[in-house]
């Protein structure tokens, strides 16, 4: 019987079986799905096709391409980087080493935005530290009448975000700069951000996918809160009266972020938990006489 271990190309189901075993041996906790995604990428097929044709033989050229990706995954490279794509909300986004890999927890910011913005409204929305454009593009896809602006300090990340917008035919304004610095005089109803929030000496920085993601998008000072402090301090100047700031943060940082927002004068400050029960986003309303919270 041919096997992925002996350098030959076998039946698709055998290739998947042996790839799963290799990834499990390398420490992957999602070995089966990783193997499927890599093979689907090589074959340019969907999951239904894969399992209805698993008795077919993998062509030699495709097998070698799959082996190369498998070996890179064994070395720890994220699947999203290997297939150059990640699903977020209802969108398929291009990602690479210049951007964070969009994660399900960040979709909570999109949910928050959609709750605050009725269909057909034309509110101004800002996504700070947009990376691949995930938050901005998801909001724009659901609320097309809104003006959505996305800012990032990385020109390389913005190039990825612009490509995603073009491929999805979504009109978002992309701006290069650090946080609010390129937005003088502008105000928004909703400011969303998934900023860096990992402490600089966190042991998790040497584990898993984050090893291959841009450190500047992950780390924020000794306690991980330097950028969040800056965003909370500066946001009132850029929020319309009655506007909202919503931030993603680490699983144990919500109490500190709530205090920051309250000290900065925000009202209706609260946090929400992710599916694991961790407080993952925190938000507050900026009061104003024209449109109070």
Q: How is this structure best described in words?
A:
This protein is an alpha/beta fold. The protein folds into two domains: 4-76, Helicase, Ruva Protein, domain 3 (Orthogonal Bundle); 88-286, Vaccinia Virus protein VP39 (Rossmann fold, 3-Layer(aba) Sandwich), CATH 3.40.50. It contains ten helices and nine strands. The strands form two sheets. The protein has a seven-stranded mixed beta sheet, with helices on both faces. The protein has a two-stranded antiparallel ribbon with strand order 1-2. Strand 4, helix 8 and strand 5 (173-176) form a beta-alpha-beta unit. Helix 1 crosses helix 2 (31-43) and helix 2 (31-43) runs antiparallel to helix 4 (60-74). The protein starts with 11 loop residues before the first helix and ends in a 7-residue tail after the last strand.
